[in-house]
Amino acid sequence: MKFFPLFFLFVLFTSCSSGDDMEILNNEMENGENMSIFKKGDFVSDAHITTGNASVNDQKTVLTFTNFMTDDGPKLLVYLSTDKNSTDFVNLGDLKGLSGNYEYNIPSNTDLDKYHVVSIWCVDFLVSFGHADLK
């Protein structure tokens, strides 16, 4: 009889953890984390150390940064550009954070064959902190 409470706790915790795993899997699927990728690339440092991955979903509507990291700077924007110097670009908005996973909406009708470089652009100093070539 002494083992019954321990057995009960074991069963309780075991059943809860499998439910939690299923909830995490459902959340990933709802958030599109298991969706197919159209293009992807790794960040390369330019003016500042920048690391992580960039990818575009197969619907060509969302740019996702994973394991992203860069330095802080004044007015950092995310560009989809034709080259790492951002000669011609589509502005996706302010950089959402310096470290982590982030998503940016891609405007409809953006030609991702033309705008294939993701750039972390510093407006004040006109330099790229880092870029990723989407392939």
Main attributes?
135 residues; alpha+beta; 8-stranded antiparallel β-sheet; 41% strand; globular
Brief sketch in words of this structure:
The chain is α+β, with helices and mostly antiparallel strands. The protein has one helix at 3-30, and strands at residues 37-45, 51-57, 62-69, 76-81, 89-94, 99-105, 117-122, 127-133. It folds into two domains: 1-34; 37-133, no CATH class.
Polypeptide structure, described:
- The chain folds into 2 domains: about 1-35; about 35-135, no CATH class.
- The protein has an 8-stranded antiparallel sheet, with no helix packed on it.
- The chain has about 140 residues and is α+β, with helices and mostly antiparallel strands.
- It has one helix at about 5-30; strands spanning about 35-45, 50-55, 60-70, 75-80, 90-95, 100-105, 115-120, 125-135.
- The termini are far apart.
- The protein is about 20% helix and about 40% strand.
- β2 and β3 (about 60-70) form a beta hairpin.
- It is built from 1 helix and 8 strands; from the N terminus they run αββββββββ.
